[in-house]
Structures are given as structure tokens and as C-alpha cells.
């Protein structure tokens, strides 16, 4: 059984592979960016994003929409999707996702020395 690990890849990783392929398919294309640049207001931007895989992530936001609200909601969506992937990951991918989460927190907090030390202490 262990001599052909590729035969059992989908048992542990098939769902995540499909999930990542779905996320990749939802990434904005060149045409989407062209349309976003042509938007005259943030409300127009919101309407265009609703026609993509971003859907209704701004649906509950009040009308004077600001850039910071859009930024916060986009980050929140990314974090939710990342956590969903992490929660369904098996080892060693789960440890790697934990590691990059901790690494980004270290860099965000300005603790670059701790990040470098964690690189040396991390074992796959």
C-alpha cells in the first residue's frame, strides 16, 4: 500500500485540491480589472464585484462605502477561506499552513528576529 502513495492521494488531499482549484478559478481576470478601473464610484465597484466569485461579501454594508471597509471585507473573506482550507488539511500540509500563519503574524508585528529563529527551528 505504501509503495504507491499516488493511488491514495485523493483520500487525504482530493477535497483540498478541488477547493484550491475552485479558488484559483475565482481569481479576478484581466477583464475584471479593466472593468474595476473604469468604475466611477465605490458603489459601481461593489456592483461589479458582485458579478464575480466575490458575490455578496459587501451586501450588508451601509451606503457610504469606504475603501477601508472594502479592504477589511476582502481580508476577512481571505482569512475565512484560508481557515477553511487549514481545517481540512492533513499533515504535513496542516503544519505548513500553521507555519505560514505564524510567520505572517511575526512579520506583521515587526518581530523579524523571531521569524528568522522560527525558520531555523521549524521541521517538516
From TrEMBL:
What's in the keyword line of the UniProt record?
Ion transport, Transport
GO molecular-function terms, A-Z: proton-transporting ATPase activity, rotational mechanism
Question: Per its UniProt record, what SUPFAM superfamilies does this chain match?
Answer: V-type ATP synthase subunit C (SSF103486)
Q: Which Gene3D superfamilies match?
A: ATP synthase (C/AC39) subunit, domain 3 (1.10.132.50)
* Entry keyword Ion transport: yes
Coiled coil ranges (UniProt) are: none
GO cellular component terms, semicolon-separated: proton-transporting V-type ATPase, V0 domain
**Name of the protein described by the UniProt record:** ATPase H+ transporting V0 subunit d1
Q: Which organism is it from?
A: Bubo bubo (Eurasian eagle-owl)
Amino acid at each position: 500500500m505504501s509503495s504507491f502513495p499516488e493511488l491514495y492521494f485523493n483520500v487525504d488531499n482530493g477535497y483540498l485540491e478541488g477547493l484550491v482549484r475552485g479558488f484559483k478559478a475565482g481569481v479576478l481576470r484581466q477583464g475584471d480589472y479593466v472593468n474595476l478601473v473604469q468604475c466611477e464610484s465605490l458603489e459601481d465597484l461593489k456592483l461589479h464585484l458582485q458579478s464575480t466569485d466575490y458575490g455578496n461579501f459587501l451586501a450588508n454594508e451601509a451606503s457610504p462605502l469606504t475603501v477601508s471597509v472594502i479592504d477589511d471585507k476582502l481580508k476577512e473573506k481571505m482569512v475565512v477561506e484560508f481557515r477553511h482550507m487549514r481545517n481540512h488539511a492533513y499533515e504535513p500540509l496542516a503544519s505548513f499552513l500553521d507555519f505560514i500563519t505564524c510567520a505572517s503574524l511575526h512579520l506583521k508585528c515587526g518581530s523579524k528576529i523571531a521569524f528568522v529563529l522560527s525558520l531555523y527551528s521549524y521541521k517538516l
